[in-house]
Design goal:
Number of domains: 1
Number of strands: 4
Number of helices: 2
Distance between the termini: 12 Å
Helix content: 25-40%
Radius of gyration: 12 Å
Shape: elongated
Largest sheet: 4 strands, antiparallel
CATH superfamily: ACT-like. Chain A, domain 2
Strand order of the largest sheet: 2-3-1-4
Structural class: alpha+beta
Order of helices and strands: EHEEHE
CATH topology: Alpha-Beta Plaits
CATH architecture: 2-Layer Sandwich
CATH class: Alpha Beta
Length: 81
């Protein structure tokens, strides 16, 4: 199965979810191209973008697991090919 490029956008509003989020990202480290995190202290949240190159099922699984963390919102945008 071919891989796809995707960007996973994550907003973390619950500080206690940061450690489990990092653990999930570590589990998928082999498909992560790069990651950028921006702490937005004035609003008490963090904005994270993760670029991945993986099979669509793996991207969906990672996004789903992230979305189940308390106080975390996630969306994935996929490349066309």
């Amino acid at each position: 199965m071919e891989t796809r490029i995707a960007i996973i956008g994550i907003i973390v509003e619950e500080p206690d979810s940061v450690e489990p989020l990092n653990a999930l990202l570590h589990q998928y480290a082999d498909c992560i191209i790069g990651r950028m995190g921006i702490p937005y202290r004035q609003r008490g949240l963090s904005i994270i973008s993760v670029a991945v190159d993986a099979q669509p099922d793996a991207i969906s699984a990672l996004s789903g697991k992230i979305g189940r963390l308390p106080g975390v919102s996630v969306k994935a945008a996929y490349s066309q090919a």
